[in-house]
Specification:
428 residues, alpha/beta, Aspartate Aminotransferase, domain 1, Aspartate Aminotransferase, domain 2, 2 domains, 8-stranded mixed β-sheet, 3-stranded antiparallel β-sheet, 13 helices, 40% helix, globular, binds pyridoxal-5'-phosphate
Amino acid sequence: MAPNFALLSDEELASALAAAEAEVAELKSRGISLDMARGKPSPEQVALSRPMLDVVNSLSELADDGVDASNYGAPWGLPSARRLMAEIMGCAPERVVVAGSSSLNLQFDCLVHAWVRGVAGEAPWSRAERVVFLCPSPGYDRHFAMTAHFGIENVAVPMTPEGPDMDIVEELVRDPAVKGLWAVPKYQNPTGITFSDEVVRRIARLEPAAQDFRVFWDNAYAVHDLYDEGDELLEIFGAIEGERGRDLVYEFASTSKITFPGSGIAALAASPADLADLEETFAMERVCPDKLNMLRHSRYLPDLAAVKAHMAELAELMRPRFELVDEKLRKGLGSASGCTWTTPRGGYFVSFNGPVGSAKAIVRLCREVGVTLTGAGATWPYGEDPEDRNIRIAPTYPSLGELAQALEVFCACTRLVCLQLAAAERGI
Ligand SMILES: Cc1ncc(COP(=O)(O)O)c(C=O)c1O
Protein backbone atom coordinates (compact mmCIF):
# COMPACT_ATOMS: atom_id res chain seq x y z
CA MET A 1 0.00 0.00 0.00
CA ALA A 2 1.24 3.50 -0.76
CA PRO A 3 2.50 5.37 2.29
CA ASN A 4 0.94 8.60 3.44
CA PHE A 5 3.20 10.89 1.43
CA ALA A 6 2.52 13.86 3.71
CA LEU A 7 4.15 11.99 6.61
CA LEU A 8 7.38 11.19 4.75
CA SER A 9 10.54 13.16 5.36
CA ASP A 10 12.16 14.77 2.29
CA GLU A 11 14.72 11.95 2.13
CA GLU A 12 12.03 9.27 2.40
CA LEU A 13 9.99 10.98 -0.29
CA ALA A 14 13.01 11.18 -2.62
CA SER A 15 13.78 7.50 -2.16
CA ALA A 16 10.09 6.49 -2.62
CA LEU A 17 10.13 8.53 -5.84
CA ALA A 18 13.27 6.78 -7.09
CA ALA A 19 11.73 3.36 -6.29
CA ALA A 20 8.48 4.26 -8.09
CA GLU A 21 10.47 5.47 -11.14
CA ALA A 22 12.39 2.21 -11.22
CA GLU A 23 9.17 0.20 -10.95
CA VAL A 24 7.57 2.05 -13.88
CA ALA A 25 10.76 1.71 -15.95
CA GLU A 26 10.73 -2.05 -15.32
CA LEU A 27 7.05 -2.27 -16.35
CA LYS A 28 7.84 -0.32 -19.54
CA SER A 29 10.46 -2.90 -20.49
CA ARG A 30 7.83 -5.68 -20.46
CA GLY A 31 6.19 -4.62 -23.74
CA ILE A 32 2.67 -4.68 -22.25
CA SER A 33 -0.31 -3.90 -24.52
CA LEU A 34 -3.67 -3.75 -22.73
CA ASP A 35 -6.88 -1.74 -23.19
CA MET A 36 -9.10 -0.50 -20.33
CA ALA A 37 -10.61 2.35 -22.35
CA ARG A 38 -14.13 1.55 -23.53
CA GLY A 39 -17.07 -0.09 -21.83
CA LYS A 40 -17.37 -3.21 -23.94
CA PRO A 41 -18.65 -6.59 -22.80
CA SER A 42 -16.03 -9.34 -22.78
CA PRO A 43 -16.11 -12.06 -25.47
CA GLU A 44 -17.49 -14.50 -22.83
CA GLN A 45 -20.35 -12.11 -22.12
CA VAL A 46 -21.49 -11.76 -25.71
CA ALA A 47 -21.08 -15.53 -26.20
CA LEU A 48 -23.88 -16.01 -23.65
CA SER A 49 -26.34 -14.44 -26.10
CA ARG A 50 -25.39 -16.66 -29.05
CA PRO A 51 -28.41 -18.99 -28.62
CA MET A 52 -30.56 -15.96 -29.51
CA LEU A 53 -29.19 -16.21 -33.04
CA ASP A 54 -30.98 -19.55 -33.51
CA VAL A 55 -34.35 -18.31 -32.27
CA VAL A 56 -35.49 -16.92 -35.63
CA ASN A 57 -34.69 -18.97 -38.73
CA SER A 58 -36.22 -19.79 -42.13
CA LEU A 59 -38.83 -22.03 -40.49
CA SER A 60 -39.94 -19.56 -37.82
CA GLU A 61 -43.42 -18.09 -37.50
CA LEU A 62 -42.81 -14.41 -38.20
CA ALA A 63 -46.07 -12.96 -36.88
CA ASP A 64 -46.12 -11.12 -33.56
CA ASP A 65 -49.55 -10.26 -32.16
CA GLY A 66 -50.89 -10.13 -35.70
CA VAL A 67 -48.01 -7.99 -37.00
CA ASP A 68 -45.95 -9.50 -39.82
CA ALA A 69 -42.32 -9.02 -38.84
CA SER A 70 -41.18 -9.85 -42.37
CA ASN A 71 -42.69 -6.81 -44.05
CA TYR A 72 -43.23 -3.07 -43.67
CA GLY A 73 -45.53 -1.93 -40.88
CA ALA A 74 -45.58 -1.26 -37.14
CA PRO A 75 -43.43 1.90 -37.27
CA TRP A 76 -43.29 2.06 -33.45
CA GLY A 77 -41.95 -1.51 -33.30
CA LEU A 78 -43.32 -5.01 -32.71
CA PRO A 79 -45.79 -5.29 -29.82
CA SER A 80 -43.69 -7.91 -28.01
CA ALA A 81 -40.54 -5.77 -28.32
CA ARG A 82 -42.38 -2.69 -27.02
CA ARG A 83 -43.60 -4.71 -24.04
CA LEU A 84 -40.08 -6.03 -23.37
CA MET A 85 -38.44 -2.60 -23.48
CA ALA A 86 -41.28 -1.12 -21.40
CA GLU A 87 -40.64 -3.74 -18.72
CA ILE A 88 -36.91 -2.96 -18.76
CA MET A 89 -37.62 0.76 -18.37
CA GLY A 90 -40.53 0.19 -15.97
CA CYS A 91 -43.07 2.20 -17.97
CA ALA A 92 -46.18 1.56 -20.08
CA PRO A 93 -45.68 -0.12 -23.51
CA GLU A 94 -47.86 2.53 -25.20
CA ARG A 95 -45.18 5.10 -24.40
CA VAL A 96 -42.43 3.07 -26.01
CA VAL A 97 -40.98 3.18 -29.52
CA VAL A 98 -38.55 0.42 -30.42
CA ALA A 99 -36.35 1.36 -33.36
CA GLY A 100 -32.89 0.45 -34.55
CA SER A 101 -30.05 -0.99 -32.57
CA SER A 102 -28.62 2.05 -30.80
CA SER A 103 -30.08 4.26 -28.09
CA LEU A 104 -27.50 6.91 -29.00
CA ASN A 105 -29.09 7.02 -32.47
CA LEU A 106 -32.45 7.73 -30.86
CA GLN A 107 -30.94 10.47 -28.72
CA PHE A 108 -29.42 11.97 -31.85
CA ASP A 109 -32.82 11.70 -33.60
CA CYS A 110 -34.47 13.64 -30.76
CA LEU A 111 -31.81 16.34 -31.00
CA VAL A 112 -32.33 16.53 -34.78
CA HIS A 113 -36.07 16.89 -34.18
CA ALA A 114 -35.52 19.73 -31.70
CA TRP A 115 -32.95 21.37 -33.96
CA VAL A 116 -34.85 21.19 -37.22
CA ARG A 117 -38.56 21.17 -36.27
CA GLY A 118 -38.62 22.31 -32.64
CA VAL A 119 -40.07 20.53 -29.61
CA ALA A 120 -43.85 20.55 -29.15
CA GLY A 121 -44.57 23.49 -31.43
CA GLU A 122 -41.78 25.74 -30.08
CA ALA A 123 -39.23 27.31 -32.45
CA PRO A 124 -36.44 25.04 -33.75
CA TRP A 125 -33.38 25.19 -31.54
CA SER A 126 -31.27 26.00 -34.60
CA ARG A 127 -32.92 29.45 -34.60
CA ALA A 128 -32.11 30.21 -30.98
CA GLU A 129 -29.17 32.46 -30.26
CA ARG A 130 -27.96 30.15 -27.50
CA VAL A 131 -28.91 26.57 -26.59
CA VAL A 132 -27.52 25.11 -23.37
CA PHE A 133 -27.48 21.53 -22.06
CA LEU A 134 -26.70 20.68 -18.45
CA CYS A 135 -24.09 17.94 -18.17
CA PRO A 136 -23.74 16.14 -14.83
CA SER A 137 -19.99 15.60 -14.55
CA PRO A 138 -18.19 13.32 -14.47
CA GLY A 139 -20.50 11.92 -17.13
CA TYR A 140 -20.68 10.12 -20.45
CA ASP A 141 -18.31 11.56 -23.06
CA ARG A 142 -20.50 10.62 -26.04
CA HIS A 143 -23.45 12.56 -24.63
CA PHE A 144 -21.37 15.68 -24.28
CA ALA A 145 -19.82 15.16 -27.72
CA MET A 146 -23.29 14.83 -29.28
CA THR A 147 -24.63 18.14 -27.98
CA ALA A 148 -21.30 19.84 -28.77
CA HIS A 149 -21.65 18.49 -32.33
CA PHE A 150 -24.86 20.54 -32.72
CA GLY A 151 -23.12 23.64 -31.38
CA ILE A 152 -25.08 23.35 -28.13
CA GLU A 153 -23.27 24.82 -25.13
CA ASN A 154 -22.47 22.14 -22.54
CA VAL A 155 -22.48 23.34 -18.94
CA ALA A 156 -21.05 21.03 -16.27
CA VAL A 157 -23.12 20.35 -13.15
CA PRO A 158 -21.34 18.49 -10.34
CA MET A 159 -22.40 14.93 -9.54
CA THR A 160 -23.10 14.28 -5.86
CA PRO A 161 -23.36 10.77 -4.34
CA GLU A 162 -27.16 11.05 -4.95
CA GLY A 163 -27.10 12.28 -8.56
CA PRO A 164 -26.65 15.71 -10.15
CA ASP A 165 -26.50 18.67 -7.76
CA MET A 166 -30.18 19.63 -7.95
CA ASP A 167 -29.75 23.03 -6.29
CA ILE A 168 -27.63 24.03 -9.28
CA VAL A 169 -29.92 22.33 -11.84
CA GLU A 170 -33.01 24.07 -10.41
CA GLU A 171 -31.25 27.42 -10.56
CA LEU A 172 -29.90 26.97 -14.09
CA VAL A 173 -33.19 25.85 -15.68
CA ARG A 174 -34.60 29.30 -14.92
CA ASP A 175 -32.57 30.48 -17.91
CA PRO A 176 -34.71 30.00 -21.07
CA ALA A 177 -31.57 29.15 -23.07
CA VAL A 178 -31.27 25.92 -21.03
CA LYS A 179 -33.07 23.32 -23.15
CA GLY A 180 -31.87 20.02 -21.77
CA LEU A 181 -30.31 17.90 -19.07
CA TRP A 182 -28.29 14.77 -19.77
CA ALA A 183 -28.99 12.09 -17.17
CA VAL A 184 -27.84 8.49 -16.74
CA PRO A 185 -30.01 7.75 -13.74
CA LYS A 186 -28.95 4.22 -12.83
CA TYR A 187 -25.35 3.10 -12.38
CA GLN A 188 -24.30 6.37 -14.00
CA ASN A 189 -21.44 6.32 -16.50
CA PRO A 190 -18.81 6.62 -15.02
CA THR A 191 -19.57 6.93 -11.28
CA GLY A 192 -21.96 3.97 -10.97
CA ILE A 193 -24.22 6.19 -8.84
CA THR A 194 -27.99 5.61 -8.94
CA PHE A 195 -30.05 8.77 -8.53
CA SER A 196 -31.82 8.88 -5.16
CA ASP A 197 -35.63 9.06 -4.98
CA GLU A 198 -35.30 12.67 -3.88
CA VAL A 199 -33.19 13.60 -6.92
CA VAL A 200 -35.66 11.84 -9.26
CA ARG A 201 -38.56 13.70 -7.61
CA ARG A 202 -36.74 17.03 -7.91
CA ILE A 203 -36.12 16.33 -11.60
CA ALA A 204 -39.82 15.47 -12.02
CA ARG A 205 -40.72 18.77 -10.31
CA LEU A 206 -38.37 20.94 -12.39
CA GLU A 207 -39.85 24.24 -13.54
CA PRO A 208 -37.74 25.11 -16.58
CA ALA A 209 -38.28 28.51 -18.16
CA ALA A 210 -38.05 26.89 -21.60
CA GLN A 211 -41.25 25.01 -22.48
CA ASP A 212 -39.18 22.91 -24.88
CA PHE A 213 -36.73 21.82 -22.17
CA ARG A 214 -36.36 18.03 -22.05
CA VAL A 215 -34.45 15.66 -19.79
CA PHE A 216 -32.57 13.07 -21.86
CA TRP A 217 -33.00 10.18 -19.40
CA ASP A 218 -30.57 7.59 -20.69
CA ASN A 219 -31.46 4.50 -18.70
CA ALA A 220 -28.68 2.49 -20.34
CA TYR A 221 -28.00 0.38 -17.23
CA ALA A 222 -31.57 -0.24 -16.02
CA VAL A 223 -31.08 -3.98 -15.44
CA HIS A 224 -27.30 -4.17 -15.15
CA ASP A 225 -26.95 -5.26 -11.52
CA LEU A 226 -23.77 -6.95 -10.32
CA TYR A 227 -25.45 -8.36 -7.20
CA ASP A 228 -28.80 -10.01 -6.46
CA GLU A 229 -29.86 -6.87 -4.64
CA GLY A 230 -29.59 -4.14 -7.25
CA ASP A 231 -30.04 -0.41 -6.80
CA GLU A 232 -33.66 0.73 -7.09
CA LEU A 233 -34.41 3.68 -9.35
CA LEU A 234 -37.68 5.56 -8.97
CA GLU A 235 -39.60 5.36 -12.26
CA ILE A 236 -39.48 8.81 -13.83
CA PHE A 237 -42.84 8.96 -15.65
CA GLY A 238 -44.64 7.85 -12.48
CA ALA A 239 -42.77 10.55 -10.55
CA ILE A 240 -43.76 13.20 -13.10
CA GLU A 241 -47.41 12.16 -13.03
CA GLY A 242 -47.29 12.27 -9.23
CA GLU A 243 -46.22 15.92 -9.59
CA ARG A 244 -48.37 17.41 -12.31
CA GLY A 245 -47.95 15.25 -15.35
CA ARG A 246 -45.96 17.25 -17.87
CA ASP A 247 -44.05 16.55 -21.05
CA LEU A 248 -40.58 16.64 -19.60
CA VAL A 249 -38.60 13.48 -20.28
CA TYR A 250 -37.34 11.47 -23.23
CA GLU A 251 -36.19 8.12 -21.85
CA PHE A 252 -33.80 5.80 -23.69
CA ALA A 253 -32.58 2.24 -23.28
CA SER A 254 -31.14 -0.55 -25.37
CA THR A 255 -30.04 -4.15 -25.15
CA SER A 256 -26.50 -3.25 -26.24
CA LYS A 257 -25.15 -4.52 -22.94
CA ILE A 258 -27.74 -7.24 -22.55
CA THR A 259 -27.28 -9.08 -25.87
CA PHE A 260 -25.00 -7.75 -28.62
CA PRO A 261 -23.56 -4.19 -28.61
CA GLY A 262 -24.40 -2.61 -31.94
CA SER A 263 -26.86 -5.40 -32.76
CA GLY A 264 -29.33 -5.12 -29.92
CA ILE A 265 -32.65 -3.29 -29.95
CA ALA A 266 -33.10 0.29 -28.78
CA ALA A 267 -36.06 2.13 -27.34
CA LEU A 268 -37.38 5.59 -26.64
CA ALA A 269 -40.18 6.32 -24.15
CA ALA A 270 -41.98 9.64 -23.83
CA SER A 271 -45.33 11.19 -22.92
CA PRO A 272 -48.15 10.62 -25.44
CA ALA A 273 -47.91 14.25 -26.59
CA ASP A 274 -44.15 14.04 -27.03
CA LEU A 275 -44.47 10.78 -28.98
CA ALA A 276 -46.99 12.39 -31.33
CA ASP A 277 -44.61 15.34 -31.73
CA LEU A 278 -41.57 13.13 -32.42
CA GLU A 279 -43.50 11.07 -34.96
CA GLU A 280 -43.15 13.98 -37.40
CA THR A 281 -39.41 13.43 -37.54
CA PHE A 282 -39.31 9.67 -36.99
CA ALA A 283 -41.72 9.06 -39.89
CA MET A 284 -39.33 10.94 -42.20
CA GLU A 285 -36.42 8.73 -41.20
CA ARG A 286 -37.77 5.26 -41.89
CA VAL A 287 -40.87 3.40 -43.04
CA CYS A 288 -40.37 0.96 -40.20
CA PRO A 289 -37.53 -0.46 -38.14
CA ASP A 290 -35.85 -3.90 -38.22
CA LYS A 291 -38.56 -6.11 -36.76
CA LEU A 292 -36.77 -9.41 -37.27
CA ASN A 293 -34.14 -8.41 -34.74
CA MET A 294 -36.93 -7.37 -32.38
CA LEU A 295 -38.54 -10.78 -32.81
CA ARG A 296 -35.23 -12.50 -32.04
CA HIS A 297 -34.94 -10.47 -28.85
CA SER A 298 -38.52 -10.77 -27.60
CA ARG A 299 -38.58 -14.52 -28.18
CA TYR A 300 -35.22 -15.06 -26.49
CA LEU A 301 -36.05 -12.66 -23.63
CA PRO A 302 -39.86 -12.80 -23.42
CA ASP A 303 -40.21 -10.84 -20.17
CA LEU A 304 -38.35 -9.10 -17.35
CA ALA A 305 -37.82 -12.37 -15.46
CA ALA A 306 -35.95 -13.78 -18.47
CA VAL A 307 -33.91 -10.57 -18.75
CA LYS A 308 -33.00 -10.73 -15.06
CA ALA A 309 -31.94 -14.40 -15.31
CA HIS A 310 -29.76 -13.51 -18.31
CA MET A 311 -28.28 -10.49 -16.52
CA ALA A 312 -27.47 -12.65 -13.50
CA GLU A 313 -25.36 -14.87 -15.77
CA LEU A 314 -23.58 -11.81 -17.17
CA ALA A 315 -23.02 -10.54 -13.62
CA GLU A 316 -21.16 -13.76 -12.77
CA LEU A 317 -18.57 -12.71 -15.35
CA MET A 318 -18.51 -9.02 -14.46
CA ARG A 319 -18.59 -9.06 -10.66
CA PRO A 320 -15.09 -10.57 -10.23
CA ARG A 321 -13.69 -7.88 -12.50
CA PHE A 322 -15.25 -5.05 -10.47
CA GLU A 323 -14.14 -6.65 -7.22
CA LEU A 324 -10.62 -7.01 -8.61
CA VAL A 325 -10.52 -3.28 -9.37
CA ASP A 326 -11.37 -2.41 -5.78
CA GLU A 327 -8.96 -4.99 -4.35
CA LYS A 328 -6.03 -3.90 -6.55
CA LEU A 329 -6.64 -0.19 -5.93
CA ARG A 330 -6.91 -0.74 -2.18
CA LYS A 331 -3.69 -2.76 -2.14
CA GLY A 332 -1.83 -0.61 -4.62
CA LEU A 333 -2.92 2.84 -3.48
CA GLY A 334 -4.80 2.61 -0.23
CA SER A 335 -6.54 5.61 1.20
CA ALA A 336 -3.33 7.35 2.17
CA SER A 337 -2.42 8.46 -1.34
CA GLY A 338 -5.32 10.93 -1.64
CA CYS A 339 -6.96 8.82 -4.36
CA THR A 340 -10.62 7.77 -4.23
CA TRP A 341 -12.75 5.55 -6.43
CA THR A 342 -16.31 4.29 -6.62
CA THR A 343 -17.43 0.72 -5.88
CA PRO A 344 -20.60 0.45 -7.99
CA ARG A 345 -23.16 -2.30 -7.58
CA GLY A 346 -23.88 -2.35 -11.30
CA GLY A 347 -23.22 -0.71 -14.64
CA TYR A 348 -19.97 -0.72 -16.56
CA PHE A 349 -17.52 1.66 -14.94
CA VAL A 350 -15.52 2.72 -11.92
CA SER A 351 -14.80 6.41 -11.49
CA PHE A 352 -11.35 7.20 -10.10
CA ASN A 353 -10.21 10.53 -8.67
CA GLY A 354 -6.52 11.20 -8.16
CA PRO A 355 -5.03 14.30 -6.55
CA VAL A 356 -5.70 17.61 -8.32
CA GLY A 357 -3.55 17.86 -11.45
CA SER A 358 -2.83 14.12 -11.73
CA ALA A 359 -5.22 12.56 -14.26
CA LYS A 360 -3.56 13.59 -17.54
CA ALA A 361 -0.15 12.55 -16.24
CA ILE A 362 -1.43 9.15 -15.04
CA VAL A 363 -3.17 8.38 -18.35
CA ARG A 364 -0.08 9.48 -20.32
CA LEU A 365 2.26 7.35 -18.21
CA CYS A 366 -0.03 4.30 -18.44
CA ARG A 367 -0.05 4.68 -22.23
CA GLU A 368 3.77 4.81 -22.27
CA VAL A 369 3.85 1.58 -20.28
CA GLY A 370 1.28 -0.03 -22.64
CA VAL A 371 -2.11 0.37 -20.92
CA THR A 372 -4.75 2.42 -22.74
CA LEU A 373 -7.30 4.23 -20.56
CA THR A 374 -10.19 6.53 -21.47
CA GLY A 375 -8.56 9.94 -22.07
CA ALA A 376 -8.27 12.13 -18.98
CA GLY A 377 -10.92 14.83 -19.09
CA ALA A 378 -13.22 12.74 -21.33
CA THR A 379 -15.79 12.59 -18.54
CA TRP A 380 -16.24 16.38 -18.63
CA PRO A 381 -17.75 18.66 -21.29
CA TYR A 382 -15.19 19.59 -23.97
CA GLY A 383 -12.74 17.12 -22.41
CA GLU A 384 -11.83 19.65 -19.73
CA ASP A 385 -11.82 18.32 -16.19
CA PRO A 386 -11.32 21.57 -14.23
CA GLU A 387 -9.30 19.80 -11.54
CA ASP A 388 -7.64 17.22 -13.82
CA ARG A 389 -8.49 14.44 -11.38
CA ASN A 390 -11.03 12.07 -12.92
CA ILE A 391 -10.27 8.84 -14.80
CA ARG A 392 -12.88 6.36 -15.99
CA ILE A 393 -11.91 2.73 -15.49
CA ALA A 394 -13.67 0.23 -17.76
CA PRO A 395 -12.98 -3.24 -16.35
CA THR A 396 -15.42 -5.39 -18.34
CA TYR A 397 -13.53 -6.27 -21.53
CA PRO A 398 -10.10 -7.60 -20.49
CA SER A 399 -9.74 -11.09 -19.04
CA LEU A 400 -9.18 -11.24 -15.27
CA GLY A 401 -5.47 -11.88 -15.84
CA GLU A 402 -5.13 -8.94 -18.21
CA LEU A 403 -7.15 -6.73 -15.91
CA ALA A 404 -4.91 -7.60 -12.94
CA GLN A 405 -1.86 -6.67 -14.98
CA ALA A 406 -3.45 -3.44 -16.25
CA LEU A 407 -4.38 -2.44 -12.69
CA GLU A 408 -0.85 -3.11 -11.45
CA VAL A 409 0.40 -0.74 -14.14
CA PHE A 410 -2.30 1.78 -13.23
CA CYS A 411 -1.35 1.69 -9.54
CA ALA A 412 2.38 1.95 -10.24
CA CYS A 413 1.87 4.92 -12.58
CA THR A 414 -0.54 6.60 -10.14
CA ARG A 415 1.91 6.17 -7.23
CA LEU A 416 4.68 7.70 -9.32
CA VAL A 417 2.55 10.68 -10.38
CA CYS A 418 1.35 11.25 -6.80
CA LEU A 419 4.95 11.18 -5.56
CA GLN A 420 6.06 13.55 -8.33
CA LEU A 421 3.30 15.98 -7.33
CA ALA A 422 4.19 15.70 -3.64
CA ALA A 423 7.88 16.24 -4.44
CA ALA A 424 7.14 19.23 -6.67
CA GLU A 425 5.05 20.77 -3.91
CA ARG A 426 8.01 20.55 -1.56
CA GLY A 427 10.43 21.78 -4.20
CA ILE A 428 12.38 18.49 -4.22
C1 LIG B 1 -24.87 5.91 -20.73
C2 LIG B 1 -24.76 5.21 -22.03
N1 LIG B 1 -25.69 5.41 -22.98
C3 LIG B 1 -25.63 4.81 -24.17
C4 LIG B 1 -24.59 3.96 -24.48
C5 LIG B 1 -24.55 3.32 -25.81
O1 LIG B 1 -25.80 2.76 -26.08
P1 LIG B 1 -26.23 2.17 -27.49
O2 LIG B 1 -25.29 1.09 -27.84
O3 LIG B 1 -27.62 1.72 -27.27
O4 LIG B 1 -26.18 3.31 -28.50
C6 LIG B 1 -23.58 3.73 -23.53
C7 LIG B 1 -22.43 2.88 -23.85
O5 LIG B 1 -21.42 2.88 -23.18
C8 LIG B 1 -23.68 4.37 -22.28
O6 LIG B 1 -22.75 4.19 -21.33
